[in-house]
TrEMBL record:
Species assigned in the record: Candidatus Avacidaminococcus intestinavium
UniProt similarity note: Belongs to the metallophosphoesterase superfamily. YfcE family.
Residue spans crossing the bilayer: none
Entry-linked InterPro entries: Calcineurin-like_PHP_lpxH (IPR024654), Metallo-depent_PP-like (IPR029052)
Protein name per the record: Metallophosphoesterase
Record domain Calcineurin-like phosphoesterase: where: 4-128
Amino acid sequence: MYWLITDTHFGDAEQLLAHKRPANFDARIIENWQKNIKQEDVVIHLGDLAATKKDLAIFAQLPGKKVLVLGNHDDLATEVYEKAGFLLVCFSLCLPYAGKCLLLSHEPVSELGKADINIHGHLHSLEQKSPQHLPLALEYNAYAPWRLDKLVRDFENNTI
């Protein structure tokens, strides 16, 4: 199964004020991750992982095969992210899925090329840049990852 998550910002106290997160947002994200994701699942993180290398170490303890699409706060060497358990580190990812081409990025991409949908984080809101953009925000998903199949189905059915 494929899962998406974005903007975890582990250990970043500024998130409490900037995005009105609860004081225990780190624990809530970890609990939801562990409750939903199995070791054989693929988790694609759409960037902005953690405030420090120490906070980044959380990912090595979480289940799943992890892929990182770098965010604007992810400025460490690729090897650091690999040590934290990420199998692939990239700037964006085109994923063929259910007959669609999904462009996965941290920030919304204005030129989609051949992509059908741009799934992204960064905005901490559900504001769509166009009908082809699907923004994700943990603040609006109870700090839980999204199952990709359900996300794409809901997007196509306009039930998001």
